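Backbones bend. We report:
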Amino acid sequence: MVARSPLDPSAADGGQFLDQSDLDVTFDPQFLSPPDAARLFDELYATIPWRAESIQMFGRTVPVPRLQSWHGDPGARYRYSGLLLEPEPWTAPLLEIRKRLHARRSEIEFDSVLVNLYRDGRDSMGWHADDESELGAEPEIASVSLGATRTFQLRHRTQKDLPRVDLDLTAGSLLWMAGKTQKCWQHALPKRGGKARLGARINLTFRQIHSRRG
């Protein structure tokens, strides 16, 4: 079974809760205005030092099916699937978005961001959770989408009777994940086929690296 975005429009900040067991997720489809979303997409697309990385999966080295770049404060290193990311400096567009996130939740200080470029519908992200130890026990992750709309999927790790959640992430939208989400759920962004060529999408996941805090 699949549930398409079971949203409860009762979040205090104007967003919408996803109402599922162990899922602490808020979705705001209008975090950025259309002009700002388009401008930031163009600026990031042109200026981010995109990298084609490889990771370790099941004892094999495989290419990451998208381009990416890791940015953050000095010392905000991040490791996943055998890949160690050293932070590139913050750029003006990244700082602008981080400032807007801080205005939304002033108690959260993001010190890093993973920027992903999905060049077309062939680029994707497999099932996983952002549960690395340096992100803390209950990570706060703010995911901002720019460019083409893609379907974000969530599934519970153990409660197989719960329906998978499918959520269309539009340009300028914000998906905020917190609480037990990474511990209890996995997420993915599947490939998208079809005759029409899908445009590029940029996704930014802002994070906190707790290991550098001692």
